Amino acid sequence: MTAATDAACAPDADVHEQYDDATQQREAATLGMWVFLSTEILFFGVLFASYTILRILYPQGFAAASRHTDMLLGTIETAVLLTSSSLIALAVRAVRLDQNRVAAWLLAATATLGLSFLVMHGFEYYKEYTEHLIPAIDFMQPGPHSHAIELFFCLYYCITGFHSLHVAIGVVVISALAVRVCRGAYGAHRYTYPELTALYWHLVDIVWVFVYPLLYLVDRSG
Amino acid sequence: MSAAAAKSDGTRPVTPVSRYLWVLAALLTLLALTAGSALLKLGSLNTVLNLAISFAKTSLVMSIFMHSTQGRRLTFMVSLLGFIWLAILICFALSDFTTRAVIPAPW
Amino acid sequence: MSTIEGSFWSHDYGLRAWLTTRDHKRIAILYALGITFYFFLGGAAATLIRLNLVEPTGALLSAENYNKAFTFHGVVMVWFFLIPSIPTTLGNFLLPLMIGARDVAFPRLNLASWYLYMLGGLFAVAALLAGGVDTGWTFYTPFSTMFSNTNVYLVVIGVFVTGFSSILTGVNFIVTIHTLRMPRLTWFRLPLFVWCMYAVSLVMVLATPVLAMTLALIALERLAHLGIFDPALGGDPLLFQHLFWFYSHPAVYIMILPAMGVVSEIIPCFVRRRIFGYRFMVYSILAITVIGFMVWGHHMFVAGQSMYASLLFSILSFVVAVPSAIKVFNWTATLRKGDISFEAPMLYALGFIGLFMLGGLTGLMLAAPALDIPLTDTYFVVAHFHYVMVGGSVMAYLGGIHYWWPKITGKLYSEGWARAAAILMFFGFNLTFFPQYILGYEGMPRRYHAYLPHFQVLNVLSSAGASILALAYLLPVAYLLWSLRAGRAAGNNPWQARGLEWQTTSPPPQENFLSAPTVGEAYAYDEAAP
């Protein structure tokens, strides 16, 4: 992630020598970010593919395991991420309209929501620890689906862990961006870097949109 | 892409605030729908519905927040690439896992 | 050294200038040094393997050390030589020149990818120094996660890190080709080498993340016994094989597509005519790229994969052979009635076609489950993929190095020595690997340090061929380095070739073109030079 945005953070005002003009440079950076996002989908894709196969092998075990997750917190976390996504979209809009203070506040709010997402996840992890649901550290579930529940939670921690890593990176990057925006580093003609950061954050959101039903909502009614 | 949307220097017009807020409202409504439908006894339809709603949310985020449909057509195509390749991975892997026990292989 | 003056070589002297350069040409040279180092390191492991197999008892290496030798050979040759070889050296150097650009789109990323490559390589070497790894380059579970007592972590981390280097190169090339082409240089005027770089970048970008994540799961599984790939805990080892081959079969196309690109440049130049069926060449490159992602299950016919899935993967494997065959036909058709001259690059290119065809056709045999099942894990498979990767990719890589050497260095190498090396390589290669087809057909299994005595004659022949091959690989190092000291100045276009890269000086200046090159049709050999 850092490397791709690093290349994209070339300020719009000074065009690097390999480009003809700022438009070409912005198009290149945007395309680079989108290609990078495709690789992100496939990074998560390995975990989703493993999930699909194992869920097909153990449908009942996965349903039983999913009921151990905290649906209320999961739903709130989803709402928080969706809201943060719209806030960062509004922030980019504000940067483009030269409303730097508004943009900085919106970015700060986005980062705060991201942070609260991480805190909520911390609570979830702690609760699962007390319920002996963490494989390799403290796992104890009696019953016929013990192995399947353990596999589910292995994937649960891989997926949410890898996703939280992305959220954490996003919070750091967005906080730093908020400071720079506040100082007026970006504006109507220099918004590539804020826009690319927003693209990254939206992707983190999209991943979660799939994580939520697949981990928290399997056979809730059963 | 709509021809009017792309100016000559490749920048998009600024999206009105109301549009972003409408999308947020739609996303939260869809979230409520997913959570609500998950509590109904629908069998395997639960999963189908959940995933359909996830794809709906994704297309809203991608088209409005990420502007994937408003810039160059190339951007839109690249935005689908990861999903298509993930579908290849999952579908071909499933072709093995879902047909395994039907007839034992003769070897 | 008069030609060096004013070129990218002399732009800024000193180690520091080279290690912080963002010039795609210098990064290509840095990559070439790394890749050559790993090629000979992997070659040393191959030498040990072939020496051990001279005798049926395999007295040189213990079974354990033999496992470590072929694992090291595989890991180094696949990830630290073959995959980066052509894209990062010739690709980095030539891609911007061929499209008339000043540099790649993201020069800093380009340098970062070299550092990641070297860092990954350090981990692999560290694993060797710490005692090696015995899992085979495929890291099959559950052996790699539960039973192997060797340095699996180090190698897995090394390959993981190098994977990011691949991804960065891929992103860079895709964006470069999309955004930095000269005006009037439309898609169907691009040299096929550029098309191949585009295709290979797509494969790198779409396949490598899957490998990286799968290797991360292997490391986690080893660390914490997650159970995802462990049948004892309800997991599925075949899941690992699916994920691994989703990357590693397309990785074969990462190795062969650039080779096809190089050959498509060399052949028209030494036949003095347009490439036959340009558009079909482009479509077949794209078809290989996409269909190549749908055939991975042919590595798993005996692994317990469902019969129906095997059928599907088998049919698609036959389908992917069609575009490859189209390419071979088109190269051959380009040769027909052409004014062929047999300079060293052309000898390598012709060698490529022959060896690739033999490797490809035996690949079809292995794509049919009825033949693959008895041949799995025999030397037939070993011979097949060495024909494609060594006979195909390495021949083309060396062909490309010879073809563009005058452009890169501004010097001419000794044509006589170069032809001798190319011919020696062709015969050495066939002597090494053709006996392995027969050995495999007769049932000698791969990955054993000892074998039945009646296989000895063919094994001795193979080892004799390997020593000729080793000599043939050392020769170019000698005469190419010699040419740097004593070679004649090459001039801007010694082969009267047509690509944009030949319109600048040799070696190119730091800014690539002092005056804008003239864009025309690709391969316009029937027209007067611009």
Using only CA atoms, what is the Rg of chain C?
23 Å
Structural class by SSE content of chain B: mainly alpha
What's the total number of strands of chain B?
Answer: 0
**Largest sheet: spatial strand order of chain C:** 1-2
What's the alpha carbon Rg of chain B, rounded to whole Å? 20 Å
What's the helix-strand series of chain B? Answer: HHH
The tally of beta strands of chain C, per DSSP, is 2
Spans where pLDDT lies below 50 across 5 or more residues of chain C:
none
Tell me what the structure shows:
The complex is a heterotrimer of chains A (222), B (107) and C (530). Chain A is mainly alpha-helical and 222 residues long. Chain A has helices at residues 2-8, 22-57, 59-66, 71-96, 100-130, 146-182, 192-216, and strands spanning 133-134, 138-139. Chain A is 77% helix and 2% strand. Chain A has a two-stranded antiparallel sheet with strand order 1-2. Residues 1-12 of chain A have low confidence and may be disordered. Chain B contains three helices and no strands. The N and C termini of chain B lie far apart (54 Å). The model of chain B is unreliable at 1-8 (pLDDT under 50). Chain C has 15 helices and two strands. In chain C, strands 1-2 form a two-stranded antiparallel ribbon. The relative contact order of chain C is 0.11. Chains in contact: A-B, A-C, B-C. Chains A and B meet through helix 2, helix 4 and helix 7 of A and helix 1, helix 2 and helix 3 of B.
Could you give a quick summary of the protein structure above?
The complex is a heterotrimer of chains A (about 220), B (about 110) and C (about 525). Chain A is mainly alpha-helical and about 220 residues long.
Question: What's the layout of helices and strands?
Answer:
The complex is a heterotrimer of chains A (222), B (107) and C (530).
Chain A: H1 2-8, H2 22-57, H3 59-66, H4 71-96, H5 100-130, E1 133-134, E2 138-139, H6 146-182, H7 192-216
Antiparallel strand pairs in A: 1-2
Chain B: H1 17-38, H2 45-65, H3 73-97
Helix pairs in contact in B: 1-2
Chain C: H1 15-19, H2 24-52, H3 63-98, H4 107-129, H5 143-147, H6 152-179, H7 192-224, H8 237-271, H9 278-291, H10 307-335, H11 344-367, H12 369-375, H13 379-409, E1 411-412, H14 415-441, H15 456-486, E2 488-489
Antiparallel strand pairs in C: 1-2
Helix pairs in contact in C: 2-3, 2-4, 2-15, 3-4, 3-6, 3-7, 3-8, 3-13, 4-6, 6-7, 7-8, 7-9, 8-10, 8-11, 8-13, 9-10, 10-11, 11-13, 11-14, 13-14, 14-15
